[in-house]
Amino acid sequence: MANIELIKEKSIFDRVRDYYRGERISNALIVLIGGGGIVWTLLLYLWRQGQLSTGLFYSTFPLGIFCIVTGFYRFMRSLRRYKNAQDEFSGIAFLIKEETPHLEGRLERFMNKRKVDMIGIFTGFTLLALSILGSWNHLILGTAVSLTIFSSILLAFDLFGQFRTSEFIHHVKKLKDS
Predict the structure, then answer these.
(1) What is the number of other CB atoms lying within 10 angstroms of the CB of residue 40?
(2) Which one has a higher pLDDT value, 82 or 30?
(3) Which helix (H) or strand (E) covers residue 152, if one does?
(4) CB 6 within 8 A of CB 147
């Protein structure tokens, strides 16, 4: 007979570590995407110097700066919150009393961010269609492409973050109920 290994349930502290590690990785990726987008469109702008590359760069620059600033802020916040949650003396109490309401508020913010991301995607696609059908300036086409790409990336990260946060809240509430 084959040995049957028992699958050990992860402890809440393992889940805390995994949640905040995923949050830090996501935020570091957002910083890299913002910085990479700026560098890529700057190089394209310097190489081509056309209306399309100008539109891409001028719209990617503020969106990239936004991603860099918010990703870095969230990364640092995640380090602080992880330290508070892992504190031996107040870890479980911190999770139940302070972290759960914070995470439930974060779920509501994910819903609001998703609406903004969808508006960005809709606006980008509308501008894309209008610039292609109306033979508009390529500057608007570059702006539309950049807006659509960044909004889509941010939507994907927000959906992933919402899923991870829901799962983490579920495990914390399970701990609270036991």
Answers:
(1) 14
(2) 30
(3) helix 138-177
(4) no
